[in-house]
Amino acid sequence: MSVTRILLSWSSGKDSAYSLHKLVQDPKFDVVGLLTSFDERAQQVPIQGTPISAVRLQAKALGLPLVEVPMPKDANNQEYQAQLLSALSQSSLEFDGLAFGDLFLDGIVEFRRQLFEPAGYSCHFPLLGQAPATLAREIQAAGIKAFLVSTHHQHLSNDFCGREYDASLLNDLPEAACPCGERGEFHSFVYDSPQFAFPLRIRKGQQTILSYAYQKVKMQLQTFEVEA
Question: Where is the Diphthamide synthase domain (predicted)?
Fold first, then answer.
């Protein structure tokens, strides 16, 4: 049986962590590294708001190399694609395909395939098509520990920001909110999982506002410091 060497797109959140959890249990795949793009000026994962320094500690806990892709602030699609493909072609890692934690066929899957497959990389989606409510419970049952690092002002009240991603949070979410945050309601940061060699220690700070004018996005952001 041939094994596909995978570079996993890593946002720092629960979907990425659960994608890894599933991939490492599948003998058809060998995850050889993580791929993260970030705002070069802010030193944060866009929209998510996670500091790239915290992502580096996640990679350390996972024992996986991290391919970092710095992006100019408010990069357009053309710049984003060019930076990604350049980083992949220059990486010293040997890999055959990319994996992503997308759940829905809403255009993003087609976008990824059209971008990466012509460059010779296969695309894999271990969570695609799963029901969000079921997936949310599976993530928690797997032992993945996370908190909400950012929440969308139009979908959730500010008191959700910074909360643990647990059963209590799922019960408190508004009925219209996706339990996995797939419509942008929230983003999470994982500080422990079955694949972590050690948990990360989190010290939460004050909350602030994260805005992206070009996407008309306004997020409540939980600042934090993290130690290995």
Answer: 8-206
